[in-house]
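Take a protein:
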Amino acid sequence: MHPPSLIALATNVVALDEERFVFNAMVARWGDQQTSRGLQPTTIERRQQFIRRFQSFCEDYPWRWRPGDLEDFTTQARSGAAPLTRSTVRSYQLTIRLFCEFVTDTRYGWPAECSNRFGAVPQQICHDWNTIAHLLDFEGRPARRALTTDELEQFFDAADSRVDAIVRTRRKGALNALRDSQLFKTIYAFGLRRAETVGLDIADLRSNPGAPQFGSYGALYVRHGKGTRGTGPKRRTVLTVPETGWVVDGLTQWVDLARPRLLNEWHTDALWPTERHTRVSTRYLNMRFADLRDQIGLPSELTPHALRHTYVTNLIEWGYSEKFVQDQVGHAYASTTAIYTSVGDDFKNRALARALSHIYGDTDGR
């Protein structure tokens, strides 16, 4: 009886390209192993696609891969006109490491299978001396940051002005522009990620008994939160805070008045529908953000994620506890929340003044 992982290699099957046949079976069975671990299908498919890309780069199969193949790949990825970031290359290296661990594990039978068929066995080509170590908590681009108060106001003013300009000229698109303006305000007011935002439904707007003044908009139920290590979406409830309570008026206007006009009797649960009866995509969100960003002259490195950074920064400046901020934005660790924080000079000066006052007493009037 053949080992379970090698059923696809039954001896009564004659492959025209034996090496390609075995490689495809390896990748498929690796996918089965990851499925058994509970990883998401999208994560598994992305990893399998990369392993196929790496095989094409090597122009050889896993039983003949050597550490030098990984080093050549890394060198090419980190050079050229558009080098990949350290974090991206490290994620690729991790994928190769995981695949090599699978095909070198004798419990799955691949070393014996490859030895019998090709006279060579797979080996682990990733080791501590040829892979990128994870030394820093944050390796993103330094230019990506939170927006200042003035930049945030300019951004929202530009979004609102686009609505007014379309209305004045009586052109089509006013409802779409209003939707986009409120969408970006919602990202900031609740500290959302892009996928979390576009995945919102009307039913995700909730009341909060602790803040009845916000009515049906006292909380936002996020069902498409970012998972970890390939797991499914993590859910959380984000409370409306008083400092961003102004978002309630805009959401009310959108939900009660503008959204029904855009749908024109067509039904969907999506909070942000399009006039074509689809859900706004993350790609569309990126494009609209870039248009407004370029219009007011903000750095091109800024993305919609800057609004989430700004939210975290502002919560800290407003005096909310680290645990509250961590729960609001759905971070598993407080250290991740700290990465997002970029408090302004005013906040730091106030903190310094409190410390000086505690040590030296009140110095006002001196």
User: Anything to note?
Assistant: The first strand starts at residue 205 and ends at 206. Residues 1-5, 135-139 have pLDDT under 50 and may be disordered.
